[in-house]
Specification:
Layout (H helix, E strand, L loop, with lengths): L5 H6 L14 H15 L3 E12 L5 E6 L4 E6 L1 H5 L9 E12 L4 E14 L1 H15 L17 E6 L4 H13 L3 E6 L7 H14 L8 E6 L13 H9 L4 E5 L7 H5 L2 E2 L3 H8 L3 H36 L3 H40 L2 H25 L11 E3 L5 E3 L12 E2 L5 E2 L2 E3 L27
Parallel strand pairs: 3-5, 6-7, 6-8, 8-9, 9-10
Antiparallel strand pairs: 1-2, 1-4, 2-3, 4-5, 11-12, 11-15, 13-14
Helix pairs in contact: 5-9, 6-7
């Protein structure tokens, strides 16, 4: 029967006549390589710069030794790591003594380090220290120029890779502590061009309008070797951080990683998560603090009110009562009221007596009689004067008109002819008057004779 699958038969491996080479498995080849490498390089001493050093939980240490052209992995088992005289750090140039071996699981060869000694500072570390001294001399790391972080920023800018775990850790921590608006500026955090992107992001945040510009900027990256973090040691990034008008928190690498960006920033955070914690306070703590202050204010106000009420009550007890204050005034008012009544009664009585006396004097009949007697006396005086000296006249300037009780009613010019002795007051009532003088002869004085004029009608004549 002919073969139904002639092409498939040709694909199956068949022994070649005259070829005695057996096919090796991958494990067999890896084992042979391992035995050959370990037999040929059972004891070596390597000089190189440490990079990517890390110690795992088991106590073993993993690192790389490199120079300008090549890199070899290395491992220090826990027992050998405990006997090291120093703590390995990235950038340190060392001389490692050990043996070469292979790791079949990854088809890699590595050196198992049994002893390690310092050979001097590595090239990268030397460059880093030189750049650090140069920038420090310019004052970029001066503590006086570092600014205080805002207490409660409204907006936080983050310069980091948008796809890494760093931005998720920051957002998660901000959400737990105090939810805040976050602006992310995506950049490369390692490799070629990473330093330029980070510097451009910092400048871009600073150039934003004041209304939308963040109050705080976080420059963050995860951990790594000194080569991975080298972008944050570049001079462009350091100068951009120092020139930023916004306060900057540097959160590059883990707690043991240090870059020049950390020295130029206003605050260094050991991790990106710690940067988020330093950026904002805990909202619950703020609310509790506000409630505590409000309660204290209320207690202080209530205590002040209570003490004021106590002082007021004490003062009120010291004050005299109303009856004690107003008692003398009330008694004095009663005395004055009684004295006023008596005074009014006495004044009315005096006024009534005076009125009665005046009424008695001004009775019409009595006045008429007194007036007639006054006229008769005046005529008698006039006759006596006429008999003594016919040319003498009565000097009316020395006469007075008085009432019987001696009160002067009208001045001296009132002494006139007999008919004029009847005087009148405003009420047109007749008044009984008498003409009195020192002596009848004293009123007469010689006067030249002159013809007498006829009396005017209605005028009295001397008798």
């Amino acid at each position: 029967m002919p073969d139904a699958f002639p092409e498939a038969a040709r694909l199956v491996a068949e022994p070649i006549p005259g070829d005695n080479a057996l096919a090796l498995s991958v494990s067999e080849l890896s084992g042979r390589l391992k035995r050959m490498v370990e037999g040929e390089f059972g004891h070596v001493r390597l000089r190189g710069e440490i990079s990517g050093f890390k110690r795992v939980a088991s106590g073993h240490c993993y690192l790389c030794l490199k120079d300008e052209d090549a890199v070899i992995d290395g491992v220090i088992w826990r027992t050998a790591a405990a006997g090291l005289a120093f703590r390995p750090e990235d950038g340190a140039e060392v001389i490692a003594t050990g043996r070469l071996t292979t790791y079949p699981g990854r088809s890699k060869y590595q050196i198992v380090i049994e002893r390690m000694e310092l050979a001097g500072a590595g090239a990268l570390m030397a460059l880093l220290e030189k750049r650090k001294a140069q920038l420090a001399a310019e004052g970029l790391f001066d503590g006086a120029r570092k600014r205080a972080l805002p207490f409660l920023p409204r907006t936080i800018g983050v310069v980091t890779s948008p796809t890494g775990a760093v931005i998720r850790d920051i957002l998660h921590r901000l959400g737990d502590r105090c939810p805040t608006h976050v602006l992310v500026w995506p950049v490369k955090v390692q490799g070629e061009g990473a330093a330029e992107e980070v510097a451009a992001a910092l400048a871009g945040f600073g150039a934003m309008p004041a209304e939308t510009r963040p109050d705080l900027v976080i420059v963050a990256r995860g951990g790594g070797s000194i080569e991975d973090l080298w972008a944050f040691n570049e001079e462009a990034v350091v100068r951009a951080v120092a020139a930023s008008p916004i306060p900057v928190i540097s959160a590059v690498g883990h707690e043991t990683d240090t870059t020049l960006c950390d020295h130029a920033a206003d605050l260094r955070a050991p991790t990106p998560t710690a940067a988020a914690e330093l950026a904002v306070p805990v909202l619950a703590d703020l609310r509790l603090q506000l409630d505590t202050h409000a309660a204290r204010i209320a207690r202080c106000a209530r205590r002040y009110q209570e003490r004021g009420r106590e002082r007021l009550d004490a003062l009120a007890r010291c004050l005299p009562t109303r009856d004690r204050l107003l008692g003398p005034q009330r008694q004095r008012a009663d005395d004055w009221g009684q004295r006023l009544d008596r005074g009014l009664e006495r004044r009315v009585g005096v006024a009534r007596g005076g009125l009665e006396r005046i009424a008695a004097v001004l009775r019409p009949a009595l006045l008429d009689r007194r007036l007639e007697r006054a006229r008769a006396r005046w005529r008698a005086d006039a006759r006596v004067l006429a008999s003594l000296n016919p040319d003498a006249v009565l000097d009316r300037g020395y006469a007075r008109v008085t009432t019987r009780d001696g009160a002067t009613l009208i001045g001296a010019a009132a002494a006139r002819a007999a008919g004029a002795l009847t005087l009148r007051f405003r009420d047109s009532q007749a008044v009984d008057v008498t003409v009195e003088g020192r002596d009848a002869a004293a009123y007469a004085r010689p006067r030249p004779a002159r013809p007498r004029a006829a009396p005017a009608p209605g005028q009295p004549t001397l008798l």
